[in-house]
Amino acid sequence: MIELIVIASNAQALTLLEEFTAPGLLAITLEDASANQSVEESISLLNVSNAQENMPVWDCVQLFLLFEDWESTQEGLPILYGYGVTENQLAGFRVVGDKDWIEHIKDQFHPIEIMYGFWLVPTWHEVPQEAKNYLFLDPGLAFGTGSHPTTLMCLRWLLNHNLQDQSLLDYGCGSGILAMVAAKLSARPVYAVDIDTVAVTVTLDNARLNQVMIHAQTPGKLDRQFHLVMANIVCQPLIDLAPHLIESLQIGGTLILSGILLFQVEAIKNTYKQWLDLEVVDNIGDWVCLAGQYRQDQVALK
Ligand SMILES: C[S@@+](CC[C@H](N)C(=O)[O-])C[C@H]1O[C@@H](n2cnc3c(N)ncnc32)[C@H](O)[C@@H]1O
Questions:
Q1: DSSP class of residue 295?
Q2: In 10 A of CB 99, how many CB atoms?
């Protein structure tokens, strides 16, 4: 297998993680670019693309694109360029074997305390002694280890609210991390939806592992409405999905959106203002989390 290393802005990395597919592409993972190379080097690589996107220069990550072989890597490159990635952003290739790849994923993921003694624990680690509550997680090839700011803000929202008997829909569930934390905090019933069938399988596996009840499926009719609808995707899908997300929300229920950058807040607010007034409730760097309550006066529009 061949691993292609790409230096990307945080927003570009998330778009690629969400949307990039190519024949022979096996997986995409990311890590902080400053962890493995000098900051100066990352910044100089990023100056061109960041100027175009008006993003801060320090906001960059290393993406690892794992391809089956050299042939598929070469076929994948033009597709990558179609996403605005330039040759300057390619930091290198390396040949990896199966065993190295599994270790590579494991090396990146350690137990993390979200807050209030609630820990996320990779299945291959012991539960830290100081953990008051915890969730075992094996993200497999799905997004969602809890270390990305957009996930972390959703987790903080969940831990800061009383979820007892609140029904919740996690739209774009990835590893199922948000749905499972909600279920651990007594939300019920909890539904999880993802366009990616691998994510649905990983979510069901993780739910079994943690002995929590999650209904996971690909997008389709749900035939019910929820007290809470949470979606951590990226800006454009959150705009496109607005009617679907609202359709699943009870009047008076709360919508929580993440995966949004500061400069995208107005576009999101404008899209949803016919149903609810979204406000920024959390931020990490340039990433923000928005929440709002479905207004009573919208009942006639449902
Ligand atoms: C950024 S990840 C979030 C994963 C997890 N919920 C978390 O917070 O870490 C976004 C997820 O949304 C899914 N997704 C993207 N577009 C979608 C769509 N239109 N409908 C359903 N899921 C979608 C992706 O497959 C991906 O698993």
A1: P
A2: 8
Domain that holds residue 275: 110-301
Nearest Cα residue to atom 4 of ligand 1:
174
Query: Are residues 121 and 98 part of one domain?
Result: no
Ligand 1 atom index nearest CA of 148: 9
As a whole number of angstroms, the distance between CA 128 and CA 299 comes to: 47
Distance, C-alpha 16 to centroid of its chain: 12
CB contact at 8 A, 76 and 64: no
158 & 219 share domain = yes
Domain boundary among 60, 86, 106: 106
What is the pTM (predicted TM-score) of this model?
0.73
> Element (H or E) spanning 298, and its range?
none
Separation of CA 150 and ligand 1 centre (Å): 11
Same domain, 9 and 117: no
Strands 2-9, 60-67: pairing kind: antiparallel
Residues with Cβ within 6 A of ligand 1? 18, 142-144, 151, 154, 170, 172-174, 177-178, 193-196, 199, 219, 232-233, 237, 241, 259
For ligand 1, the distance from its centroid to the CA atom of residue 45, given in whole angstroms, is: 28
Tell me: do 10 and 62 sit in the same domain: yes
Q: Which atom of ligand 1 is nearest to the CA of 151?
A: 8
Q: What total of structural domains would you count in the chain?
A: 2
- Note whether 21 and 86 are same-domain residues: yes
Residue by residue, pLDDT tens for the chain (302 residues) are: 888 888 888 788 888 887 888 888 888 887 766 554 443 344 333 433 333 343 333 367 888 898 888 778 888 888 888 888 887 788 777 877 765 555 666 676 789 999 999 999 988 899 999 999 999 987 665 566 777 788 999 999 999 999 999 999 999 998 899 999 999 999 999 999 998 888 899 899 999 999 999 999 999 888 899 999 999 998 889 999 999 999 999 999 999 999 898 889 999 999 999 999 999 999 998 889 999 999 977 544 44
Residue whose CA lies nearest to ligand 1 atom number 9:
144
Domain harbouring 41, CATH code? 3.30.70
